[in-house]
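Lay summary

Proteins are chains of building blocks that fold into shapes. Our project writes down both the chain and a compact code for its shape. Here are two examples, one after the other.
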Amino acid sequence: MRENHFDNVSNGKGFIAALDQSGGSTPKALAAYGVMEEAYSTEDEMFDLIHEMRTRIITAPAFDSEHILGAILFKQTMDSKIEGKYTADYLAEEKGIAPFLKVDNGLAEKSKGVQMMKPIPNLKDMLVRANERHIFGTKMRSVIHEANAEGIKEIVDQQFKFAKEITDAGLVPIVEPEVNIHSKEKEEAENILKDEIMKHLDKLAEDEKVMLKLTLPETPNLYKEATEHPRVVRVVALSGGYTRKEANEKLRHNEGVIASFSRALTQDLRVDQSDEEFNESLRKAIESIYDASVNKK
């Protein structure tokens, strides 16, 4: 199954659905869906509600392997079930979609113009659990706010340090050093980031394969060299606060890059929609993101 996932994620047409809202971002995701904070009183109740939302998305007819290559999950989602199967098994067996797991513990405080990842002391145990749950790959996010060369170097160093542990465990890491779309130094920061990424890619051993999840750049095709690198499985783009229309338009100008959208995927979904309305909204979103991932300008 893992070999099939690898070939499909590497070469298939489609995109990666990001369904990995964590404890910090879940209230916002639920609110956008129409579930306000007064609807739950504990964290467990909150995660049950977000799992209901994710289940509704994943089981929808439009959420299929013709359009979607992979889906990124949160830890609780990995350990939850859909129609009697663990989520990763449901994705792989019922949908033919590769499951990924968010493994970071959130962001540290801003320093040197960036936010590194908090330490991940439980990474080894989490990777063992991910393999037991038949997870294909992982994702970890840090954020760049300024064109600070020292800070950006440290972020990329940290990302690839963890990526090494993940590849050693037999999983495919998605390296995600996001550049804040509101940064006044966005273009300069992206140029520094690209140079640091390429340095690390060139040092990877032949059996060390990674994916990159990057902010849609100011310069079209900035990451084209990365998309062609032999150690890169796929380059995917985050929506980062852009609307779906904005993100899709930017994506079309980046050859070899496919979407890995979260908010831009779910922005039109509401808890009070009928199944017909919900499925139609999701279908339109999936088809538009697929089109921008596949058809370039």
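And here is the second example, written the same way.
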Amino acid sequence: MTVLSLPPLDLDGGVGPHDDDSPLRSVSTAVAVLDCFAEEAELGATRVAARLGIAKSTACRMLAALATGGLLERTGSGRYRLGLRLFEYGQLAVDRLMLRDVALPAMGELRELLRETIQLGVVVGTDVLYVERTEAASMNVRFRSEHRRNPAHSSSTGRVLAAGDPALAAAILERGFVRYTPFTVVDPQRYRQILATTREQGYATSREEFEPGWSSVAAPITMMRGGRPHPVAALSVVAPTSRVLGPRKPAVVQGIRRAAARVSADLERARS
């Protein structure tokens, strides 16, 4: 995904001083420019400048930057219209909101079955963002709830998603690995082997690779794309290592795989 690099913009009509809030003004102006297209399908720099009260040169630069990022498209007439990337973002937002609503019942049932913390995770860049987490009220030891975003390479969720998404796996490998505990896998070849094993068995594990004493098991939530199941999220169980990778591991694996398969099927029904 292209990262926009926008000049600091002065809403009064030009390039402003490089003070602390210049980046925020750039973002505000970009949003204002995009808002112009809510009422008109195509606009040129002159029209945008007039509507926002900024210099035409400023509007030109902003429109060009947004087009470079795929948020706008330039037409044959030289004007601009909303780009496909905005549609993709909108669809992603809808999918993730729907994902949470669909997954919650299965997460609640799995929590009661295993009496452990259940997480719903999605990929953001090369990190995992946990968009929902449920904990059993009777748990004696709780996972630290501030862990909402973790590096994908050290989590079972990141591994199970990368195993089914070659582009994500490549991005994680390119980013490189940070060691968080003595058990964090940082060797690229070993990581590739783990992904291969994950694809074969249909689930992933992480043994104390981000926080000592805590381990997890994850299974993918998939949706059909191009006639094939594609991982869009994952359910995971996180608990003290002895409770998730000890004698209870078969039950944990079976529970998380069944729950993820149920959510996958419910998602397909919800979209049909």
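What can we say about the second shape? Confidence is low (pLDDT under 50) at residues 1-21.
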